[in-house]
Amino acid sequence: MSDAVKAISFKPAVKARGYENETTTKIYLNAWQLQPGKSYSIHVAPMDDIYGNRLSAAEDYTVDMPDYRPDFDMESEHEYV
After folding, report:
1. Measured between alpha carbons, how far is 30 from 46 in angstroms, rounded to an integer?
2. Running DSSP on this structure, what letter comes out for residue 42?
3. Is this model's pTM higher than 0.90 or not?
4. Other CB atoms closer than 10 Å to residue 42's CB: what's the count?
5. 37: three-class secondary structure by DSSP
6. How many CB atoms within 10 Å of residue 3?
7. How many CB atoms lie within 10 A of CB 32?
8. Cβ distance 7 to 21 under 8 Å?
9. CA-CA distances (angstroms) from residue 1 to 21, 25, 79, 80?
């Protein structure tokens, strides 16, 4: 995921939550310290995915965060839940 964290930037700038050295096939907005009630411009620079496929053109998005978004999960390393 470090390649993705490096390729994705926000305005206003925000920091990643410490996932820079992990390997994953998915990435979510909660990987960055986004604030409720704010609007963010997201720039995705060209990068390679884990299979070597290249995102050859940059992409830009705008995201409006809701005023409140709870963040929790019920994952368990034992998969009981």
Report:
1. 21
2. E
3. no
4. 17
5. coil
6. 14
7. 19
8. no
9. 7, 8, 24, 27
9, burial (CB in 10 Å: exposed 0-12, middle 13-18, buried 19+): middle
For residues 42 and 11, give the distance between their C-alpha atoms in angstroms, rounded to a whole number. 7
Question: pLDDT (tens digit, 0 to 9) for every residue of the chain, 81 residues total?
Answer: 567 778 899 999 998 876 666 666 677 888 888 998 999 999 999 988 878 888 889 999 999 998 876 666 666 665 555
Is residue 46 within 8 A of residue 56, CB to CB? The reply is yes
| Amino acid letter for position 25 | T
What integer pLDDT is reported at residue 13 of this predicted model?
94
User: Tokens 């994705």 correspond to what residue?
Assistant: 8
